[in-house]
Structures are given as structure tokens and as C-alpha cells.
């Protein structure tokens, strides 16, 4: 772990009002963050621990990224902001959430951010520590949080969220990583038509086999 | 590619009646097969081409493995025989196929063959040529063939098969590769209760969003 000493706190801005900070310091913090997230998972890593590992003050992390969430996204080089997407998804009825979730996701994958998303998923599939930090972030910070804004009971949200992730991950993997035809070349609307009802059942339908 | 000359056709058996053949020759054929399957996919690779690449007679391949299917399974070191599993799954009603498919699959993953299956999936996720040969084999030789034994129309079988693969791959990846909780530690029966209805809809339900 590289220890970096910061000569001047970048919060002390010069006259231009724009001072992005020492790029080496930022990178050292991002490296430390990636290491801590990989070691302790999203929930276990702390801003204080990351700052200590990078040899800087915790305030500097807040200054640069504002939140652990934003620091995480920067550390894993995520090309999209899932928290922002989750906020957009939280507008609308729960009865339609499966369709909106999948449409929005496919939009991201078909956008210029697609290749970077693919790289991120590939590294999570190939490396246990990346898998650990991403799964925890995506499941608890994005999907389960989203379900809770729709008042899905706490004791159901974790399983429902994991089931949603299983089908979403399956579509992403089959369509973009492994390239299973005809799924890989189907227009997004057709994928949504086929798969959204699955997500909707996982969100608010019966997932216990009890019927209903 | 190693070229191997075979001095004596192993079909000419000795008195013991058991002659597994020259292990070096077998291995050279398996290596050649893995190369050909990776290059040309399951459908594109031929017994003749593999024999030529290994520098042996095609009859030797049939002698050792009996079929391209069996040679493929040996070349990818598959710990289970999907063709055999597909045959067992073909016994029973289509209305129950989703449940039987998932139960059987989870049984295999929880069996001593599990770690080898995981290794195979990991290598398919990490390597495009392994992904190519496995996806083609699993989709067209196992899943779509199974759907056809239930007289699912040809023009629907490919999409239905790919959707089944998307959810199965998603469960496998979430449960065994990435370890998404609580899915990773749920008893198999609970996974089946939650996910089998998805597979059943992909098999014989509406997948066009037209309703029904």
C-alpha cells in the first residue's frame, strides 16, 4: 500500500476556483479504496480505514467524492451511477418495476458505457474479491434499497433482491458475456417482453411456491 | 498441434479384453479436440478434422468415445453427461419440466461433481473460445434438443432454450460463482420453489409479452 503525504489540503482552493487536487493523491486513495473494498466488502470498508491505508485525512475523501458510495463507484471505475439509476427507477408503480428495471439496465448496456460495464462484470466473474465487493454493493445498496423504497418487507427484500439479481445477471451473462443466441441479437424490447414478467414475480409475486 | 502416430490400432485387443489404448494418443486426441471445438464450435468441429489434427485415423476416435458428443464431454473434462441427464429429463410431463430441470441441475451441483462443474463454468465465463463451445453444446445439444422431444415448435425452441439458459446460468452464477446471499445458502428446494416457475414459463408459457 503506497503512503502519500499531502502537502496542502486541496479544499484550500486557489483563485481559479478549480483545483482537482493532486492526481497522485487521488489515485493513491482509489488504490487504497479498491484494496479495502476487496478485503472487507462494501459494508465492511470504512472511509476512515481507506484514508488510513492511503495515509491521508478522512476529510479529503469526503472532499473528493462526497460519500462512500461515490468513492466505491470511482474505485471500481464504474461507468454508470447505480444510485442515480435506482433513484430514477423509484419513480413509478411497483407493478411495473420489473419492466422498468430491465429496460433501464439494457439501455445502459447498449450505451457507450456498455464495454466498461462488460469489463466490470467479467472481472467480477473471474475474481472472488471483485465479485464480493460488487455483489454486496449491487444487492444491498442498489436492488434491496430500491425494493425497500417500495415497502417490500425487510424479511423478504433480501431474497427478492437476490432472485432479481440472478435473472438480471443471467441475461447479462447470456447476452453479453457468453453470447447465447438468439438472446444476444434480440432487440432490447423483445428481451424485456420475455424476461420482465420474471423480475416482476421476484419483486412482488409468489417466490415460495405456496401459490398465489 | 502435436502429431501422434499410432503403432497399433487399440481396437485390436489383447487377451485381457481390456486395453485402454495408449494414454499419450488419447491425450493427443483430446488436446486436438479441445483445439478444434474452441476454434470451430461444437457444430463446426468434425471427427475427421479432429483426427487429422491429432494425426490419427477417424475410426480411432469412434473407437475410444463412440460419438462426437462423448468426445466433447471428455475434451472439456465434463464431470457429468448432459445427454444422459437430458434423456432422464425427457421422462415426464412438459408441464413439470421446469421444476425437474432445475432440481436435477442443483442435484448435480451439490454432488461431488460440483467443483468440476464450477471450474468449467468459470472457464467459460473467462474465456471466449470455451464460452463458444460450451454455449453451443448446452443450448443446441441439450436444452433445445430436450424442448424438441416435447414437440416445442422449431421456430420457438431456440428462444425458449436461450431464456432457460439465461435463468439457469443466472442461478448458477449468483449461487455458486458470485455467492449472492441468501440465494447461495438457500436449500435447493427453496431455490426450485422460487425459480422453477420462471423456467416453466420460458418452456411453455408466453415469452412475447402478448399475454396468455
TrEMBL record, chains A, B:
<dbReference type="InterPro" id="IPR001647">
    <property type="entry name" value="HTH_TetR"/>
</dbReference>
<dbReference type="GO" id="GO:0003700">
    <property type="term" value="F:DNA-binding transcription factor activity"/>
</dbReference>
<dbReference type="InterPro" id="IPR009057">
    <property type="entry name" value="Homeodomain-like_sf"/>
</dbReference>
<dbReference type="InterPro" id="IPR041678">
    <property type="entry name" value="TetR_C_16"/>
</dbReference>
<keyword id="KW-0238">DNA-binding</keyword>
<protein>
    <submittedName>
        <fullName>TetR family transcriptional regulator</fullName>
    </submittedName>
</protein>
<dbReference type="InterPro" id="IPR036271">
    <property type="entry name" value="Tet_transcr_reg_TetR-rel_C_sf"/>
</dbReference>
<dbReference type="Pfam" id="PF17920">
    <property type="entry name" value="TetR_C_16"/>
</dbReference>
<feature type="DNA-binding region" description="H-T-H motif">
    <location>
        <begin position="46"/>
        <end position="65"/>
    </location>
</feature>
<feature type="region of interest" description="Disordered">
    <location>
        <begin position="1"/>
        <end position="24"/>
    </location>
</feature>
<dbReference type="GO" id="GO:0000976">
    <property type="term" value="F:transcription cis-regulatory region binding"/>
</dbReference>
<feature type="domain" description="HTH tetR-type">
    <location>
        <begin position="23"/>
        <end position="83"/>
    </location>
</feature>
<dbReference type="InterPro" id="IPR050109">
    <property type="entry name" value="HTH-type_TetR-like_transc_reg"/>
</dbReference>
<dbReference type="Pfam" id="PF00440">
    <property type="entry name" value="TetR_N"/>
</dbReference>
Amino acid at each position: 500500500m503506497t503512503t502519500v503525504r499531502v502537502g496542502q489540503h486541496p479544499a484550500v482552493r486557489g483563485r481559479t476556483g478549480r483545483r482537482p487536487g493532486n492526481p497522485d493523491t487521488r489515485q493513491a486513495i482509489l488504490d487504497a479504496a479498491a484494496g479495502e473494498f476487496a478485503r472487507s466488502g462494501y459494508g465492511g470498508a470504512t472511509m476512515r480505514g481507506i484514508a488510513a491505508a492511503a495515509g491521508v485525512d478522512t476529510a479529503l475523501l469526503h472532499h473528493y467524492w462526497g460519500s462512500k458510495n461515490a468513492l466505491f463507484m470511482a474505485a471500481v471505475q464504474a461507468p454508470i451511477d447505480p444510485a442515480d439509476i435506482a433513484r430514477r427507477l423509484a419513480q413509478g408503480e411497483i407493478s411495473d418495476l420489473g419492466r422498468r428495471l430491465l429496460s433501464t439496465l439494457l439501455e445502459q448496456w447498449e450505451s457507450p458505457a456498455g464495454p466498461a460495464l462488460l469489463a466490470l462484470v467479467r472481472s467480477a466473474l473471474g475474481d472472488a474479491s471483485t465479485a464480493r465487493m460488487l455483489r454486496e454493493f449491487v444487492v444491498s445498496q442498489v436492488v434491496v434499497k430500491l425494493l425497500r423504497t417500495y415497502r417490500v418487507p425487510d424479511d423478504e427484500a433480501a431474497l427478492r433482491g437476490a432472485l432479481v439479481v440472478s435473472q438480471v445477471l443471467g441475461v447479462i451473462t447470456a447476452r453479453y458475456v457468453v453470447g447465447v443466441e438468439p438472446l444476444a441479437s434480440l432487440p432490447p424490447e423483445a428481451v424485456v417482453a420475455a424476461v420482465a414478467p420474471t423480475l416482476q414475480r421476484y419483486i412482488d409475486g409468489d417466490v415460495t411456491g405456496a401459490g398465489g
